[in-house]
Automatic annotation (TrEMBL), chain A:
Gene3D superfamilies: MetI-like (1.10.3720.10). Its main location: membrane. This is Nickel import system permease protein NikB. PROSITE patterns: ABC_TM1 (PS50928). It is found in: Cell membrane. The chain crosses the membrane at residues 12-30, 104-126, 138-164, 176-195, 230-256, 276-302. It is a multi-pass membrane protein. It holds the Pfam family BPD_transp_1_N. CDD domains: TM_PBP2. One of its GO terms (molecular function) is nickel cation transmembrane transporter activity. InterPro entries: BPD_transp_1_N, MetI-like, MetI-like_sf, Opp2B. The gene is dppB. Residues 98-299 form the ABC transmembrane type-1 domain. One of its GO terms (cellular component) is plasma membrane.
Length: 309, 515
C-alpha cells in the first residue's frame, strides 16, 4: 500500500513538472500579446508606448528564463501568480469557480451513469429485441450529435418552447438540469453500448454456464453476477469522464452561461491571461493524476485478483 | 412481451410527469414571484455580452462597469456625440495646457461620502497610474483641488481632446478608498448602486436613493453576462431576460417575426476597413490602391453580409460624428488605366501581370470578427473577376502580424472615435512617427494638420480640421473604408427606455423602465 501511494506521488510530481514546463513554453510561443489584447479589448486604438508600459507592468519584458524560474517557484509553493486581467491570485480565481464546475460534473456524471446502467443493462437483458434496437439507435444518436447542438436543442425545446426550465445561469437546481443532461446524455448512451458488450461477453464465461445449469434465470445472472464483472471497464471510463468534467466542460459552460472553470479558461485564452492558462493546466494535470489514482484504488477494491498480484 | 411493453410505457409516463411537474412548479414560482415584485419592486433583467473579471473601474473592465449604470465620468457624450456636462457641470480653459473644472454640487458616492475635488483628483490619479491607455488619452501633468468643487488639470502638452477623452470609461470617478475595502463594492456616483456581483454570472444594481440627478425608474436591475449570442437570443425568447445587447444580424428576422419583441439599432462609431501596406511591392503605387478601392462592393457587403444593418463607409469616421460627414470621392479613371500606370498588363487568362508574374497578394483577416472574413471573401471574388488574385490568410493575432511580418492588405475593425474625438485615431494610425502606424502612411502635411488639431479647442474649427485631414489622407488611399456597422439590441415589449446607442458603453441608465 505504501509503495502504491509513493509511486503515485512521484508520478504526480513528474506530471506537474512536465505540464508546468510544457504549458509555459506553449503559452509563450503561441501568438497573441496579452498587453495588446487588454488595451485593445474594446477595439479602441492603443499606442506602442502604452502597450510597452502594460507589458512591463505585467512582467512580460523580463527574460523568458527568469519568467520560467519564477513560474516554477510559484507552482511548487502553491502561489501560481496573479491573473493579468483581474490582478487576483490565480489559485483563488480557480477555486472560486470550482464549486460550479463540481456541481455540473457530479450532475452530469449522475445522468451519464443513470443512462449507462439503465440502457446498458436493459439492452443486454433484451438482446436483439426492440429495446436493444432502440438502445443502438440512441447510442448512435448520442455519439453523432455535437454537444453544442444538443445544448441549443434542449434550450429551445424546454426553455423557449415550453418555458419549463431556465435557459441559462446558475440560480437553483432547475438551472442544472439542461447543462447536466447535455453533458451526460451523449456519453451515457455510448457507454451503455460498452457495458452491454461486456455483459454479453461475460455470458460466455464458465461461471455463467454453471449458474444457468443451476436454473438461475438469465436476467438474474446478468444483474447480480455479470454486472459486477462488467463494472471494471465502466469504472475506468467513468474516472476519465469525471476528470474531463471536473476540468470544466468549455462548450456546455459557455452555452449555458455556467460560471465554472471551462467558461473561465476560455475567456482567459481569449485574453491571453498567461498565469491563468498555466495555472489551469497544472490544476487539470493534478486532477487527472489524482482521479486516476482513485480509479486504481477502486480497482483494488472491486477486483480481488489485482490485490493478489 | 405485453408485460414488458407496459413496464416501459409506465416508466416513460412517469418521466414525462416528473418533467411536467418541474415545469409547472417553475411557472408557478415565476408567477408568484412576478406578482410579488409588481406589488413591491419594479425590476428588469438585461443580458450583456461581456463578463467583467471584477469591478475595478480603472482596469480593462472599465467599459463593463460603465455599462451597469452605476458609474459616471466628469464628461458625458450627448446623443450627437458632443461632450456634455456630467459630474463636471462646466469647464474653462485657463491657458494652453490648463483647464479648470467646476464640479456638480451635492454629489455623494454610494458609501455616503461627498464627491469633492480631492476625491475626483485621487480617482483620476489612480486611473492614469493603473491604465497606460488612460494616461495616453489624458496626458495629465498635474492636478490641484482649488476648492471643494473646483479641480485644475494641467496637461503635459496641449491636449484639445482632453474634454472628450474625459468621457472614456477609464476615467470613471470612484471613491478610491472604497476599492481597498475587502468586503463591499466600489463606491461610484451613478443612479444605481451595486448590490451583488456574481463573478461570470450576473450583477445586481439597485436604485441609489441619494442620487444627485433624476432617480432611476426601476428599483432593481439584474444584468446577466451571457457570452454566447444564441444563448442571449434564447434567454430573451424564453423570458429569462427583458433585453439583450449585441444581437447577431442573422437573428434579427427571427425576433421581428414575433410582435412581442422589438429590435433596436443605432449606427455605431466602429468602422470595418481594408488596410493597405504602403511598403508592399503590390500596393506601393497609389494607382493600384485606387483600383482595388474602386472595386470594393460596399453596398453589396452592407446588403448581403450585414443584412442591411450598416452603412457603406466613405471615411474613417462614422457619419453620426460631426466630423464624419465627408463627401464621397468616386474614382473616375477606369481600372485598366490605373493598373497600366503601374506597369500591369492583362494576360490571356485575363489576369493582371507584370514582369511575367501574375498580380497575387496576401489578404489578412482574423477570426475574432467573423463578418470580416466573409467580407474579405466577397472582395476576393470581386477582385478575381477583375484579374487580381488575393490569397486570404486568417491569423489569430492580427496586430502582431501587422507590425512584425510582411503583408499586402488586411481587414481591420476599430472604434475610430470612442470618445467622440478624432485625435487619438488620427495620431495613432496616420502620424508618420507613430510606432503604431501599421501601414506606413507618411505625409508631412497630415502630420502638421494632426498637430494643429491637437491644439485646436474650438469645436467647429476642430471638426473642419478633422474633415480636411481625412480628405488629405483620402488622396493617398491608405485604407479602404467598407462599412459602419449598426449596434443591435433587442427587448421585449415590456421594457422601455433601453436603447441602442452609438457609443458602446452607455447601456443601463436611469430612464430604463418596465411596464
Amino acid at each position: 500500500m505504501v509503495k502504491f501511494v509513493l509511486e503515485h506521488i512521484l508520478q504526480l510530481f513528474l506530471v506537474v513538472f512536465s505540464v508546468a514546463t510544457l504549458t509555459f513554453l506553449l503559452v509563450r510561443f503561441s501568438p497573441g500579446d496579452p498587453a495588446t489584447i487588454m488595451l485593445k479589448a474594446n477595439d479602441v486604438p492603443a499606442s506602442d508606448e502604452a502597450i510597452y508600459a502594460m507589458r512591463s507592468e505585467l512582467g512580460l519584458t523580463d527574460s523568458v528564463g527568469g519568467q520560467y524560474i519564477e513560474w516554477l517557484q510559484q507552482v511548487f509553493t502553491g502561489q501560481w501568480g496573479l491573473s493579468f486581467v483581474s490582478q487576483k491570485p490565480v489559485i483563488s480565481e480557480l477555486f472560486a469557480r470550482l464549486p460550479a464546475t463540481l456541481e455540473l460534473a457530479f450532475a452530469g456524471l449522475g445522468i451519464m451513469l443513470l443512462v449507462t446502467l439503465v440502457l446498458g443493462i436493459s439492452t443486454a437483458v433484451y438482446e436483439n429485441g426492440v429495446v436493444d434496437k432502440i438502445g443502438r439507435f440512441l447510442s448512435l444518436l448520442g455519439s453523432a450529435i455535437p454537444t453544442f447542438w444538443l445544448g441549443f436543442l434542449c434550450m429551445y425545446i424546454f426553455s423557449v418552447n415550453f418555458g419549463w426550465l431556465p435557459s441559462m445561469g446558475r440560480n437553483d437546481w432547475k438551472n442544472l438540469i439542461l447543462p447536466a443532461t447535455t453533458l451526460g446524455l451523449g456519453l451515457g448512451t455510448v457507454y451503455a453500448r460498452v457495458l452491454r458488450a461486456y455483459m454479453l461477453e461475460m455470458l460466455q464465461q464458465p461461471f455463467v454456464k454453471a449458474s444457468r445449469a443451476r436454473g438461475i434465470s438469465k436476467k438474474r445472472i446478468l444483474v447480480f453476477q455479470v454486472l459486477k464483472h462488467a463494472l471494471l471497464p465502466i469504472v475506468t471510463m467513468v474516472g476519465t469522464s469525471f476528470a474531463f468534467m471536473m476540468g470544466g466542460s468549455i462548450i456546455v459552460e459557455t452555452i449555458f452561461s455556467w460560471p465554472g472553470l471551462g467558461q473561465y479558461v476560455m475567456e482567459s485564452i481569449n485574453m491571453r491571461d498567461y498565469p491563468v492558462i498555466q495555472g489551469y493546466v497544472v490544476f487539470a494535470g493534478i486532477l487527472f493524476v489524482t482521479i486516476h489514482m482513485i480509479v486504481d484504488f477502486i480497482y483494488l477494491i472491486i477486483d480481488p485478483r489485482l490485490r493478489v498480484r | 412481451m405485453k408485460k414488458r411493453y407496459t413496464g416501459w410505457t409506465t416508466w416513460l409516463f412517469m418521466a414525462i410527469c416528473i418533467l411536467a411537474l418541474v415545469g409547472c412548479s417553475a411557472k408557478e414560482e415565476e408567477q408568484t414571484g412576478k406578482d410579488g415584485k409588481e406589488e413591491t419592486k419594479k425590476t428588469a433583467t438585461l443580458a450583456f455580452s461581456w463578463s467583467p473579471s471584477g469591478l475595478d473601474p480603472h482596469s480593462s473592465d472599465s467599459w463593463e462597469v460603465m455599462r451597469t449604470g452605476a458609474a459616471e465620468t466628469l464628461v458625458k457624450l450627448s446623443e450627437d456625440l458632443a461632450p456634455a456636462p456630467w459630474l463636471a457641470k462646466s469647464w474653462e480653459q485657463v491657458d494652453a495646457t490648463t483647464w479648470l473644472f467646476h464640479l456638480q454640487e451635492n454629489v455623494t458616492f454610494h458609501n455616503g461620502k461627498a464627491m469633492d475635488a480631492t476625491a475626483v483628483k485621487n480617482s483620476l490619479q489612480r486611473a492614469i497610474e493603473n491604465n497606460p491607455g488612460t494616461n495616453d488619452l489624458l496626458k495629465i501633468k498635474s492636478m490641484e483641488a482649488v476648492s471643494e468643487t473646483e479641480l485644475k488639470i494641467e496637461t503635459m502638452e496641449i491636449n484639445a481632446a482632453l474634454i472628450s477623452n474625459l468621457a472614456d470609461p477609464g476615467t470613471i470617478i470612484v471613491d478610491v478608498d472604497s476599492l481597498d475595502e475587502k468586503d463591499g463594492y466600489p463606491a461610484f456616483t451613478g443612479a444605481y448602486v451595486i448590490k451583488q456581483f456574481n463573478q461570470d454570472e450576473s450583477l445586481i444594481v439597485n436604485r441609489y436613493e441619494d442620487y444627485w440627478g433624476e432617480k432611476a425608474k426601476l428599483d432593481e436591475v439584474t444584468i446577466k453576462f451571457i457570452i454566447d449570442g444564441n444563448t442571449r437570443l434564447m434567454a430573451l425568447q424564453s423570458g429569462d431576460v427583458d433585453g439583450a445587447t449585441d444581437i447577431s444580424v442573422d437573428n434579427i428576422e427571427v425576433l421581428e417575426r414575433n410582435n412581442k419583441f422589438n429590435v433596436l439599432t443605432a449606427m455605431s462609431v466602429r468602422t470595418h476597413m481594408v488596410m493597405y501596406n504602403m511598403e508592399s511591392p503590390k500596393f506601393k503605387q497609389l494607382a493600384v490602391r485606387k483600383a482595388v478601392d474602386s472595386l470594393i462592393p460596399r453596398q453589396e457587403i452592407v446588403e448581403s453580409v450585414m443584412k442591411g444593418q450598416g452603412t457603406a463607409a466613405v471615411g474613417p469616421f462614422s457619419p453620426v460624428l460631426p466630423f464624419g460627414q465627408i463627401s464621397e470621392t468616386k474614382e473616375e479613371e477606369p481600372i485598366e488605366q490605373l493598373m497600366q500606370q503601374d506597369g500591369w498588363t492583362k494576360n490571356k487568362e485575363g489576369m493582371w501581370e507584370k514582369d511575367g508574374k501574375v498580380f497575387e497578394a496576401t489578404f489578412l483577416t482574423f477570426p475574432q470578427r467573423p463578418e470580416l472574413t466573409v467580407m474579405a471573401e466577397v472582395i476576393q471574388s470581386k477582385l478575381l473577376d477583375q484579374g487580381m488574385k488575393m490569397n486570404i490568410r486568417q491569423v489569430e493575432n492580427i496586430d502582431e502580424i501587422l507590425v512584425n511580418e510582411e503583408w499586402d492588405l488586411s481587414m481591420y475593425s476599430m472604434l475610430t472615435a470612442h470618445t467622440g474625438s478624432p485625435d487619438f485615431f488620427l495620431e495613432i494610425f496616420f502620424k508618420s512617427d507613430s510606432s503604431s502606424n501599421m501601414n506606413h502612411f507618411a505625409s508631412q502635411a497630415v502630420d502638421a494638420m494632426i498637430d494643429e488639431l491637437h491644439q485646436t479647442t474650438d469645436i467647429e474649427k476642430r471638426n473642419e480640421l478633422a474633415i480636411q485631414i481625412q480628405e488629405e489622407i483620402g488622396k493617398e488611399v491608405p485604407h479602404s473604408y467598407i462599412v459602419y456597422p449598426n449596434t443591435v439590441f433587442a427587448v421585449n415589449d415590456e421594457l422601455k427606455g433601453f436603447e441602442a446607442f452609438s457609443i458602446e458603453y452607455y447601456y443601463n441608465h436611469a430612464n430604463v423602465d418596465k411596464e
